[in-house]
Every structure is written in structure tokens, then in C-alpha cells.
Write a structure and sequence with these properties.
With about 290 residues, the chain is an all-alpha fold. The chain contains 15 helices and two strands. Strands 1-2 form a two-stranded antiparallel sheet. The longest helix has 25 residues.
């Protein structure tokens, strides 16, 4: 680096300054290391060289650089999940909307985990002689509740951002549904592993969970994201109470968890999924018309 000397400190606390040629190279970003490091250190303490640098710099380029720096500093830092989604090739706006899903937050997942642990504990206390009725009754409701929380202006704090995002409402709903189902079914599956004494009977929640979720989504297109899952959840509880009242002698599994009941759940899942596809445009229209 070429330095010019002065007889005094020139207000900068030094007796020498960076040459104008090097300052021009510094402004262009063409000053090589270690000269660049020396210039950086000198400029922090020398008002004279900073003034010269301002005079030889392109004001338009300098303003653009500050704008880029401000924009970079203002951009939120993506978390682990969002960074992972971006690495997988998911668009940034889709990843942001996905990680903002209320049902994927730690508070919700923690609450679901606590409920499942409590249910498993209560079920395990009764031994393996009977059927895990409490667990089977509760497990299908958790994915339904999670999906209900993932969409709609009343429950989603990022709903306004979702409305203006370049994403079809139905596609956003499906993305969030798959994510929530993955988390919910995964937690249910781990809870099932804690009930090895019941064997395959402990997996009888899976088809009802899919049936309830698909039915809730299909009805959401007409009834909204609050009323639809509420009615479906209430219907599930009423069905279990009716099946329990009709069960002879109080022994054996409830009707929804028998082979016939599992078949009905599979049929309901297929029909609800078909209805959901037919009504898919309603999600985009309703989201765009909501004030």
C-alpha cells in the first residue's frame, strides 16, 4: 500500500494517510489483502481518509451498497427447519409459510406429546388384557386438531401473508396438511410403540385418523376451518359413545376398531379425499375474498 505522509495528525490520529489511488481501489472493491486490512484499520481512525474516500467513491454505487447492507441486516435469519426446507429446493415463500404453521410450533407439539404420554400411561396401567380404547379414541383427534390449526384466518397468525403469497390456497393447505400429518402421525406412531402388549390392535387409530382428517378438510371448503373440524370431532365422539352403548357385555373392541370399522374408515377416507379434490378451488376463492 502506498501512503502519503503529513506533518501532523490531520485530525485522524496518524501522521500518514492512505493514498488516493489506493482509496479508489478500495472504493471499487479491488484492493487486495493485506492492503485491504490495513486500509480498513486506518479508515476507522482517520477522518481525513474517510473524507477523501467519500470524494472518490461513486455516490450511486455507495448508496446501493448501503441499501443492500440494510436489506441483508433486515432479513430474518431462517431457523433450522426453514434452512432444511430451502436446502431441499422448496421456494423461500413456501418454506416460510410452512414453518409458520401453528400446529408445527414447539408449544403445540409439546402439548400433543404430553397428552399422548398421559394417555399411554393410563392405558398401560390397565394391562394388556383388554383393548387400548382410550388411546384409540384420542389418537385420531390429534391430527384433525393439528390440521384445523394450520389454515384459516381465525387460527393462523400468518393468514394474511398466505393470502397474498403466490401459492394456490389448496396447494398451501395440502402442504401444511402433509407436514402436520407427518408430525402428528409420527408422534402417534411413537406412542403406539409404547404399547407393545396390544400388538396390531394399537394401530387401529391410523385409518380413523385419516378418515377424520380428510372429512374435516372436505367440509372446511363449505363450513370453514373452525366449524368443520369441530363437527367432525364431535361426530367421532358421538360415534364412540354409541358404539360403546351398543357393545354387548362391554367386552371386545368398539365397532370403529373392528375389521368392518376399519373398512368403513378406509372408504370414508377415499370419498372425502375425492370430494376435497372436487372442491379445491373453493379454498382459493374463499381465501381471496376474506377481508
Amino acid at each position: 500500500m502506498t501512503y502519503g505522509t503529513t506533518g501532523g495528525t490531520s485530525g485522524g490520529g496518524t501522521g500518514w494517510h492512505v493514498s488516493e489511488e489506493d482509496l479508489r481501489a478500495y472504493a471499487r472493491g479491488g484492493l487486495p489483502a493485506p492492503l485491504l486490512w490495513s486500509a480498513d484499520t486506518h479508515l476507522t481512525a482517520c477522518a481525513h481518509c474517510r473524507a477523501v474516500l467519500a470524494g472518490v467513491s461513486d455516490p450511486v454505487a455507495l448508496d446501493a451498497g448501503w441499501e443492500r447492507l440494510d436489506a441483508e441486516l433486515d432479513v430474518p435469519r431462517p431457523g433450522f427447519l426453514e434452512s432444511l426446507l430451502l436446502r431441499l429446493g422448496i421456494a423461500d415463500h413456501t418454506a416460510r409459510l410452512l414453518v409458520a404453521t401453528p400446529a408445527l410450533r414447539r408449544s403445540w407439539l409439546g402439548a400433543v406429546t404430553a397428552v399422548l404420554l398421559l394417555t399411554v400411561a393410563v392405558t398401560a396401567v390397565h394391562g394388556t388384557g383388554g383393548s387400548p380404547t382410550l388411546f384409540l379414541a384420542l389418537a385420531p383427534l390429534l391430527p384433525l386438531a393439528g390440521v384445523a390449526l394450520s389454515y384459516g384466518p381465525a387460527l393462523d397468525p400468518t393468514y394474511e401473508m398466505a393470502v397474498v403469497a403466490p401459492t394456490h390456497g389448496f396447494r398451501l393447505l395440502m402442504i401444511r396438511t402433509v407436514a402436520v400429518l407427518g408430525a402428528g402421525l409420527g408422534l402417534n406412531g411413537l406412542a403406539t410403540l409404547a404399547l407393545p402388549g396390544y400388538g396390531l390392535r394399537a394401530l387401529a387409530w391410523l385409518l380413523p385418523a385419516l378418515a377424520l382428517t380428510a372429512t374435516g378438510l372436505a367440509l372446511t371448503a363449505r363450513l370453514g376451518p373452525v366449524l368443520a373440524p369441530s363437527l367432525v370431532g364431535g361426530g367421532w365422539i358421538a360415534l364412540l359413545l354409541t358404539a360403546d352403548a351398543a357393545r354387548a357385555g362391554g367386552d371386545g373392541p368398539l365397532a370403529p376398531f373392528t375389521a368392518a370399522g376399519q373398512g368403513v374408515s378406509a372408504v370414508v377416507t377415499a370419498l372425502a379425499a375425492a370430494l376435497l379434490v372436487l372442491l379445491r378451488d373453493r379454498f382459493d376463492l374463499s381465501s381471496r375474498s376474506t377481508p
